[in-house]
UniProtKB/TrEMBL annotation:
Name of the protein: Ribbon-helix-helix protein, copG family
InterPro entries xrefs: CopG, Ribbon_hlx_hlx
Biological process according to GO: regulation of DNA-templated transcription
Pfam families registered for this protein in UniProt: RHH_1
Organism: Thiocapsa roseopersicina
């Protein structure tokens, strides 16, 4: 485990503290979760860029279209 010191504007730090309180988390845990989300998005983008560069861009886009459709179905309100 590493310790990382960051400098933030006071208003940003206060908003993060408020968000952490609202979610019932420590600021440390909130930053850990937000960092994990950012890294997952970066990893996904990197994966798709590599796939497009090495493979068939049309196939990669078709996969993304299927994922978008599946997500739309999963978030559609129930009647």
């Amino acid at each position: 485990m590493s310790t990382l010191t960051i400098r933030l504007p006071d208003d940003t730090a206060e908003r993060l503290r408020a968000l952490a309180r609202r979610r019932g988390l420590s600021v440390n845990k909130l930053i850990e979760e937000l960092s994990a989300q950012a890294l997952a998005a970066w990893d996904t983008e990197s994966h798709f860029r590599a796939s497009a560069a090495m493979g068939d861009p049309a196939r990669t886009l078709a996969i993304l279209d299927r994922l978008d459709a599946a997500e739309a179905d999963a978030t559609r309100p129930l009647d």
